[in-house]
């Protein structure tokens, strides 16, 4: 039978992202409020700024914008992570990048599962930031062993999901009917369970070790803890959250406001305090847990290693000034001051090799193939024969992620772990290597350069 009886992984991913969004709207209604707010802001920005609308259109970013989300989950064992890797592969999502959050006092390391080709990203860029608990960072031996025992007992995938993953791997894909079954079965892994699997005292002991340990170990599965829409104006989104009385985090993470947005800026509302039922005791105990929150992000230019090094340096400068971190009143002033050192026009960013760009012939270029054949890309851009649009950053930022983690853990647990980043251990658990994000952006840029000379 031919391969076209199979639904494309891009379509399965779109179905899944939609199903996840519908589920999270029901679970956390405030998420729906954020989605509506972002849609309103994006419409206004695109109406006010036709040049940006045109650029997004040219770059295949306009259509995906309304669907664009990322989520996050945390798992407890190598087997869970490896199976997730297989589940995401069915939807064309692959592990990109390694993030060590132990340096920020969070006992996990992470990757982002996401699509990686231009056409897959244009179809639907859905990404899931996925963290693996580092049990070895729990100091109390008895508690560490108990956690491992609890985790070893749970099954976070349904039998149907496992069977369909096997089938997709064996046959090379899923047909329409099986793809629909797969999406529904996969969704079960990410659902919230208000019944804990451990007693209240065990939950409290885990929580004392680290609240994130309790979040991972105490439940039947790795509930999706947020789903983030992408805005074109995060400062408007932050103001909109406050205007609606939403308990937004104090600072927007990432770079300061700029004319040319770079990387990622994020804000969130604090995690909800939710009622949880604990087994044991007379008819069980009731308690509460905070895990699930809402987040909005703005994405900008993907930086080259050189641009990223400059970003890291300036961010550290802003955070270290006066030893105040990102909490001081004057943080936004310090941040803006530090980032005067980062060029803020696309010609300079491009010529200095600080960011990745996607090149395409303009109408003039399409009409003058002879000129195009002889000139280097930069000259084509200067001559108006080609456009160079920013390639959007599709990944995450460890400092930003740590800030989001912290604000949802009560904001007190700043203590860094002495552990080293351990990419090898992460990849061993995952059962494959994580891809280098820079290589992907480099390839996207090169493909666009190659396309100038053909057709
Ligand atoms: C993940 C936090 C990271 C982001 O946007 O940086 C993240 C988590 O809290 O599990 O989603
Ligand atoms: Ni997030």
Automatic annotation (TrEMBL):
Protein name: 2-oxoadipate dioxygenase/decarboxylase
Family: Belongs to the 2-oxoadipate dioxygenase/decarboxylase family.
Cofactor: Fe(2+)
Keyword Iron: yes
Keyword Oxidoreductase: yes
PANTHER family: 2-OXOADIPATE DIOXYGENASE_DECARBOXYLASE (PTHR39479:SF2), PTHR39479
Principal EC category: oxidoreductase
Keywords: Dioxygenase, Iron, Oxidoreductase
InterPro entries: HGLS (IPR009770), YdcJ_bac-like (IPR047869)
EC number: 1.13.11.93
Pfam (any one): HGLS
Entries under Gene3D superfamilies matching the protein: Uncharacterised protein PF07063, DUF1338
């Amino acid at each position: 039978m031919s391969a076209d009886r199979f639904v494309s992984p891009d379509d399965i991913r779109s179905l899944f992202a939609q199903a996840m969004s519908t589920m999270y709207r029901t679970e956390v209604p405030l998420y729906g409020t954020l989605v509506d707010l972002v849609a309103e802001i994006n419409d206004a920005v695109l109406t006010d700024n036709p040049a940006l609308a045109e650029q997004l259109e040219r770059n295949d970013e306009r259509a995906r914008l309304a669907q664009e989300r990322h989520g996050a989950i945390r798992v407890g064992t190598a087997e869970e992570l490896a199976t997730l890797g297989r589940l995401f592969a069915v939807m064309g999502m692959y592990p990109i990048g390694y993030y060590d959050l132990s340096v920020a006092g969070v006992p996990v390391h992470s990757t982002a599962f996401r699509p990686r080709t231009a056409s897959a990203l244009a179809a639907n860029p859905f990404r899931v930031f996925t963290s693996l608990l580092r049990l070895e960072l729990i100091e109390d031996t008895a508690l560490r062993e108990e956690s491992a025992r609890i985790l070893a007992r749970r099954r976070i995938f349904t039998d149907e999901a496992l069977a369909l993953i096997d089938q997709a791997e064996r046959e090379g894909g899923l047909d329409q009917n099986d793809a629909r079954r797969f999406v529904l079965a996969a969704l079960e892994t990410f659902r919230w369970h208000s019944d804990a699997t451990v007693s209240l005292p065990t939950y409290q002991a885990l929580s004392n070790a680290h609240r994130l340990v309790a979040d991972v170990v105490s439940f039947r599965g790795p509930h999706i803890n947020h789903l983030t829409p992408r805005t074109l104006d995060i400062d408007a989104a932050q103001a909109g959250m406050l205007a609606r009385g939403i308990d937004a985090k104090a600072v927007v993470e990432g770079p300061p406001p700029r004319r040319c947005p770079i990387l990622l800026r994020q804000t969130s509302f604090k995690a909800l305090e939710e009622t949880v039922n604990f087994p044991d005791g007379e008819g069980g105990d009731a308690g509460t847990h905070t895990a699930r929150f809402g987040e909005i992000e703005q994405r900008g230019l993907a930086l080259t290693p050189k641009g990223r090094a400059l970003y890291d340096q300036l961010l550290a400068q802003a955070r270290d000034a006066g030893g105040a971190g990102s909490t001081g009143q004057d943080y936004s002033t310090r941040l803006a001051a530090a980032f005067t050192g980062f060029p803020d026009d696309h010609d300079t960013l491009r010529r200095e090799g600080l960011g990745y760009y996607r090149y395409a012939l303009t109408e003039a270029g399409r009409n003058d193939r002879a000129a195009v054949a002889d000139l280097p890309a930069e000259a084509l851009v200067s001559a108006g024969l080609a456009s160079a649009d920013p390639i959007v950053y599709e990944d995450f930022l460890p400092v930003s992620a740590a800030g989001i983690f912290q604000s949802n853990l009560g904001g007190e647990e700043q203590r860094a772990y002495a552990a080293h980043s351990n990419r090898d251990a992460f990849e061993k658990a995952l059962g494959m290597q994580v891809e280098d994000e820079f290589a992907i952006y480099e390839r996207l840029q090169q493909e666009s350069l190659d396309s100038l000379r053909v057709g």
